[in-house]
Amino acid sequence: MQHLSIVPRLLPAVRRGEKTHTLRWQEGDIHPGPLRYCNQQNPADTLVVWVTSVETLPLCAAAERLGKQAEWPDDVLLAGMREHYPAIELNSVVQLVHHLTPEASRQKLAED
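Request: output the structure for the sequence above.
Response:
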């Protein structure tokens, strides 16, 4: 199964089904199918979701793609991403990973 680490403050939003995407840079390719999020501070705290699609795009296009231009102007997006990836730039190519909510993911996993 694919794995990605996630900061603890974001995990509750994923659990509630409010966060259904993640932006990743240079962490290897993610593909559709099951993915386990692992809490960076507590490896026993995990959550499985079903990745539905993955887009490759420059970071500067991510806010528009997600309809978050007002929330994430370039300087805010870049500052937020640099918390995790200090060397990232607006023209860096990232993966935009879309996934189902945990509830929908459980249903999908039960079908397969």
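The two ends are 14 Å apart (CA to CA).
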